[in-house]
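subagent[fold] <- orchestrator: predict structure for attached chain, return tokens only, no commentary.
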Amino acid sequence: MAPHLAGQANAERLRGILNETLFYGIDHACAVIREGAEDCNIRRPLSSIGYQTPASYAKAIFAMGPGKPDPIANKAPS
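subagent[fold] -> orchestrator:
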């Protein structure tokens, strides 16, 4: 997916959360939005990084050390 389309998809997903949720205050709204952001940025596999979660991708990159090639070549899920 093109980067600008991924951003649009994330914005649409956030709009869906905001439209479907009854918030009981600003603290509740912040918690729901934070959960949605964590889901998108940590737990959901992304095709742009080889269908890995961002957390597992970051762990693999840091484990490789500096100066190593990117381990992702848009491989399909196994």
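orchestrator: received. Logging for downstream: The chain has one domain: 3-64. The chain has a mean pLDDT of 76.
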